[in-house]
Amino acid sequence: MNPKHASYDVVIVGGGIYGSSIAWWLTQMAGFDGRILVIEKDPTYAQAATSLTNSCIRQQFSNPTNIAISQFGAEFIHNFQKFMGASDDVPALSLQNFGYLYLADTAAQADTLRESQQVQAQLGAGTRHMLRDEIADAYPFYNLDDILAANHNRMNEGYFDGGTMFDCFRRMARKNGAEYLSDEVVAMTRVGTRVESVTLKSGATLSCGLVVNASGTRAAATARMAGLDIPVEARRRYTYIFDAAEPLDRDLPLTIDPSGVHFRTDGRYYMAGGGPDQDPAVDVDDFEADHSLWEEKFWPIIAHRIPQFERIKLVNMWVGHYDYNTLDQNAILGPHPEVSNFVFVNGFSGHGLQQAPAIGRGIAEWIAYGAYRSLDLAPFGVERVLRGEKFLEKAVI
Questions:
Q1: d(Cα 395, Cα 191) in Å, to the nearest integer?
Q2: Domain match, 242 and 312 both
């Protein structure tokens, strides 16, 4: 398929959850009537982070901006059909509120949880700080011999169907006039402070008013086409689905063990995930699994924390990628100060799916009106990266 036009007001590089969220939100911006082109190299999305996500949302961040972003995400999920125009082909979304449960095994970690709970409570989140006896009373299956405290929230925190959200963003963006193209951006022509055009693998060259970098783990390569650098790389993350010979008698919260391994209820099964002990950057097309990790790392940690899971059977597993921001593991957003029409939406480091409604809206506002109107996303601006100044967020998984 060839592009319909030779020039577009907005060219979005990457058609995953962020490219599609921004495209759809742009069609909702009053007064914006520009041409939108979304370019996606793999329309099957087989190895996209959007497809390989664990699809959860949490209020439990330490930074107020991240908390506000997730609060809008929960509002968006609860009112999904209304936001999407009450169309007959938009299903309702639900949020399964088993919550996240962060465990602390040191006094310093317990203090951090207590401080974060206070910030969350001030902003209306339902997070509860729990001591060991309170954890045992609510969830008697945990081994808590080495645990001092936990934070848990069952209000607007848990699993939602991110795949359906993504599908609707994409379908409704196209229905509202955004164009999707199966191709790959291989070069950009920059003249001074602007990107004038993008060149596609198919050979076409398209003029552009503005370029949005929504290319996930390929973000750094996309930025280099405009002569820019950002600290984003691909990091492997493992997901395991397992069955238990002795299932728990209640939902398992998304439990973040002090080891960094996390596990939760997943329908009739359970899901676990995390990174390898050695966590180097990998090629964006490298999804090779280290099959020894399940036996040597994940299973022993899970069985230690929940002795009832001593007898479990692995049902499925896959490797996905974080688009990992090596500076501070938080989003890099907005225009580059040296190239005014190149906009970053990158580096989510595992937060991406849950933040897509709010950040997609914010970037669309900036494109349409030159400013963030709903939530101030300026703290995520690329300027902090250029200064080497970290966005402070303690609750990174």
A1: 41
A2: yes
